[in-house]
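Today's session is about reading a structure prediction critically. Students often jump straight to the picture, but the first step is always the sequence itself: look for stretches that repeat, for charged clusters, for runs of hydrophobic residues. Only then move on to the predicted structure, which in these notes is written as discrete structure tokens rather than atom positions. Here is the chain we will use throughout the hour.
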Amino acid sequence: MKIFTSQPDEQEESHWLSVSDLMAGLMMVFLFIAVALMLKVNQDKQKIQEVAVAYQENQVAIYDALMSEFADDLKKWDAEIDQDSLTFTFKSPEVLFAQGRSDLTYEYRQLLQDFFPRYLDILWQFRDSINEVRIEGHTSSLWNGYVTDTQAYFNNMELSQDRTRSVLSYVYQLAPVADRVDWIKRHLAAVGLSSSRTISDMNGREDRIASRRVTFRVITNAEIQIKKILEIQQ
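Below is the predicted structure for this chain, in token form.
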């Protein structure tokens, strides 16, 4: 009697070979997908790094241009320019506004007539990379002895907002910038910050005089460019 066993063995071997071929094929597909995803992530990282480098270079270029233009005026105006935040700060509150008032002093109007057209000329060179220019008003935490700290904060909030609106309204109407009012409308904002960012002295106590200030801060569009890259990635 003859027993044939080779055919089932061959079928079983063929079956396992086909399964292993399928698994090998799937592994190759997953490998290609993983490689493609890694390449995309690396490309996105590179794009973000390129934006970050361009942002830093642009920050430095704007700062250098502002310093080149205003270096001789900073001491006269008691002003400073912060390189990291591109903030131009006027530090003498008595020159800007009378205490508790939002109307510009004569000295401050004269200063703005000189400062703002030149400031805008510098920013105009970098306008494609600028998202916003904020005129920010800051106060001390002091109001008077008859209100609570919360009331003082909101009273100072109203005062700081009124002051920045006064500054924006004044520079908006300056004759030398008349041909750029559309850009000013779209990019300049008046922001009152009350006493949220007071300045402390060396002993950690609030410097009430230094805390009363007005700043012009440039915000570039680098963050927007990075956000667009992240949205595309998702």
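Discussion point for the tutorial: The chain has one domain: 49-228.
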